[in-house]
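note to self — DONT lose this again. spent like an hour looking for the file last time. sequence + predicted structure for the chain T wanted, 86 res
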Amino acid sequence: MQNVKMYTTGVCPYCIQAKRLLKSKGVEQIEEIRIDVNPQERATMMEITGRRTVPQIFVGSTHVGGFDDLAALDGRGGLVPLLAGA
């Protein structure tokens, strides 16, 4: 299973939904980077993704995007293969 990294905040409902979806697909561990606790991480996230909103989700080295992107990827049947490293 690929590593999953998520830029998040403590009160983001979309972050909670993303974690729930990932866990339902067998993801046991998510590296969470809290941008509300460390503002420098927000700057890093924006530099890497070009986006300001959370969550920003990475599966391995692939930037999936936010929760809507994650849900759409799952709806197309692409999430499980990505998590498996295909």
